[in-house]
Design goal:
Blueprint lengths: L1 E6 L2 E4 L4 E9 L4 E9 L6 E6 L5 E3 L7 E6 L4 E6 L8 E11 L1 E6 L3 E6 L1
Parallel strand pairs: 2-11
Antiparallel strand pairs: 1-3, 3-8, 4-5, 4-9, 5-6, 7-8, 9-10, 9-11
């Protein structure tokens, strides 16, 4: 099992910045891709960004150029630096991790609220 603990959410004005962190613990051997999703009430959870163990990154078009995902493999931690935040970025942000150990496992964090005021 892998446990994920997110931190760094909060309230920020439009144009501001926040940095989210997600630390994995437990059976972290063979963690592969790490990423972030977000969800607003009444809508489906949507992909934000992901990063492979080797550092290859992928972003949704809505955050490309404003958000940066990074990871520290030694600390089993993934980060999301969010700049130029917009009110439409307001959501609960969830950490997502894949682990390949014979079969592919997927884990989710509990979510952290990000609110961007206009």
């Amino acid at each position: 099992q892998v446990q994920l603990v997110e931190s760094g959410g909060g309230l920020v004005q439009a144009g501001g910045s926040l940095r989210l962190s997600c630390a994995a613990s437990g059976s972290t051997f063979r963690i592969n891709d790490m990423g972030w999703y977000r969800q607003v009430p009444g809508k489906q959870r949507e992909f934000v960004a992901s990063i492979s163990r080797g550092g290859t990154t992928t972003y949704s078009d809505s955050v490309k150029g404003r958000f940066t995902i990074s990871r520290d493999n030694a600390k089993n931690t993934v980060y999301l630096s969010m700049n130029s935040l917009k009110p439409e970025d307001t959501a609960v942000y969830y950490c997502n991790v894949y682990k390949l150990d014979g079969i592919l496992y997927e884990y989710w964090g509990q979510g952290t609220q990000v609110t961007v005021s206009s």
